[in-house]
Structure formats: structure tokens, C-alpha cells
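DM from R.C. (forwarded with permission)

"hey, sorry to bug you on a friday — could you get me a structure for this? deadline for the figure draft is monday and I only need the backbone to look sensible"
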Amino acid sequence: MELEIGCKVVYPNQGVCEVQERCQRNIAGRDEEFLVLRILSNDSTVMIPSSNVDNVGLRPLADEGDLKKLFRLLESDGLEPEQDWKNRYKENLEKMKSGCLFEVGQVLRHLHFLGFQKPLSFREKKMYDRARALVISEIAAVRAEDQGEVEAGLEKQLEKVCERLSSLAAV
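My reply, with the result:
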């Protein structure tokens, strides 16, 4: 993946980043090129060796077509997450680490619905908050919208899905 200065990418479990610069550093007697990324959510900076970009899972931002698929995923039926919280947490952690928008979306959807039914554990609540922040930040970056507006729209969408699925389960 060719990364130009100023382009936005997604760093798994960190969120949307902007490529700030390319620089050379001498590490252990070897000159190596690094990418300097600014993580937009917390304005921190991270350096990644250019040779390691694929290994860390950097990916381009989603496009509008990907967002449509994400919204279909969030609205879909079939919420059958693992019942044992330890196994569920492990599965969700792997999805979060993948950096895939759709897998993070699945975590968000499952934990939102689970939280609609009963209180989430502390660890699952933290994971839910992280998944939510990652999805919101990517949608906002793709659409160049305010994160607060995206958050309100996403919350409305998730609440409608929970109400619909709850009414289906009651039948």
C-alpha cells in the first residue's frame, strides 16, 4: 500500500490516523525508513517502520460502499454471540485486533444488543466503548462529518435494531 503524506489510514485497535511524514532513522546501525502517523482520536503520534506496514495491519479508510455494508451488518438479524463470557470476550478481542471495519462492527452490534438485555461486564463495556469509538471515527472520516452527529445517528440505528430484535424474540 502506497502511503502519501496527508492520507488517512486505519491502524487496528487505534483508529483513523493521518500520515504526517516519512523519515529515516538509524536503528542498531541500520538506516530504516519510518512512517509517522498521528492518531486522530487522541492526537498522539506513532512511528512504524515502512517495511512493517503490512504486518501491523494498516489499511486504507473504508469507502461509501463499505459503509453501506457496515450499516446492513449493524441492522441484520442473527445475534448469536458466544454465551460463555470468557469465550465471547476472546472472540471479540480477536475481531478488534483484526482492524477490519466489519469485524469491529460485529463486536459493536453484539455488545450493544447484549448490553440492551443485561449490564455488560467491565471488560466488555470497555470493549464496547472502543468498538463504538473506532466505528464512529471511521464513518466520520469517510464522510467528513462531525463525530457527534455520526455518534447520534449510529446510536439511533442501534436502538432501533435492539427494539426490533427484542420484539422478534418476544414472539
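R.C.: lifesaver. The first strand starts at residue 8 and ends at 11.
me: no worries. The mean pLDDT is 89.
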